[in-house]
Each structure stands twice: as structure tokens, then as C-alpha cells.
Amino acid sequence: MIPKQYRLKKRSAFKATYKVKNSSHSGGVTLFAGIVKKEDYPTKAGFVVSKKVHKRAVKRNRLKRLMRESYRILLKENNLGNSQKYVSLVFVGSEHALGKSFKQIKSSIQKLLERI
């Protein structure tokens, strides 16, 4: 589980991140990046899989768990690239990512973090 100081929780924080319209897509996962930080505090990350992606909550939650775990491992390895200069990150899973394995999801997230 991602430590509490790195989690994005409030609806207003998600909306503010979407509003910036700084996004990138890779392998069924889209990354929205918020504004650039001015002070030194941790970047917060949120994970979203819409009900439109799949009607079964089990499938949606599995995709969110895979995305969260891959981000946690990259955070632990300190392999997040330029993503740490943003206030918030939101990862959005699409239907193309549903059947993918953990390695494929992790590589998609790693590509997004390097690209952003």
C-alpha cells in the first residue's frame, strides 16, 4: 500500500489535476499530471477506473490494485523520473488494460512517468 502522504484522496484534488489537461497515454493507462510544484513536498498519486470500463467491480478493483502496486514499487526504487516535479498525478485505467499482466501494467506506468 502506498504511504498516506503520497495518496490523492479529495475529489477537488482530482478535479484540479484533470483541469490542467497535461496528459499522456500508454498501454491502456492514461496519466494526468497537475501543476508544477513550487515548494518541496511529496507528489500525491490517485488511481481511477471508471464504471464504463467494466461493469464488474472485481475487474475494476484488480486494475486499480495493479496500478497502485506498480507505482508503489517504482516509488520505493526511486525510479519516478520527472514526475516528482508535479503536485499530483492521476492514473486512469481503460478497457485495454483490463486483461494485462502486472509486468505489462508496470512497464506502461514506467513509460508514462519517464515521458511526462
Describe this structure in a few short sentences:
The protein is about 40% helix and about 20% strand.
Task: Report on this structure.
This protein has a single domain (4-115), classed as Ribosomal Protein S5, domain 2. Strand 3, helix 2 (57-76) and strand 4 form a beta-alpha-beta unit. The longest helix has 20 residues, at 57-76. It contains three helices and four strands. A four-stranded mixed sheet has the order 1-2-4-3. By secondary structure, it is of the alpha+beta class. The protein has helices spanning 11-20, 57-76, 102-115, and strands spanning 22-26, 29-33, 44-49, 88-93.
Characterize the main sheet. Answer: 4 strands, mixed
**Quick one: overall form?**
globular
Proportion of residues in β-strands: 15-25%
Ranges where pLDDT stays below 50 over 5 or more residues in a row are: none
Radius of gyration computed on alpha carbons: 13 Å
Q: State the helical fraction.
A: 25-40%
Q: Given the helix and strand composition, which structural class is it?
A: alpha+beta
Looking at the overall shape, the CATH architecture is 2-Layer Sandwich
CATH class: Alpha Beta
CATH topology term: Ribosomal Protein S5, domain 2
> Could you spell the SSE succession in H and E letters?
HEEEHEH
Average residue-wise pLDDT? 92
Q: Report strand order across the widest sheet.
A: 1-2-4-3
| Total discrete domains | 1
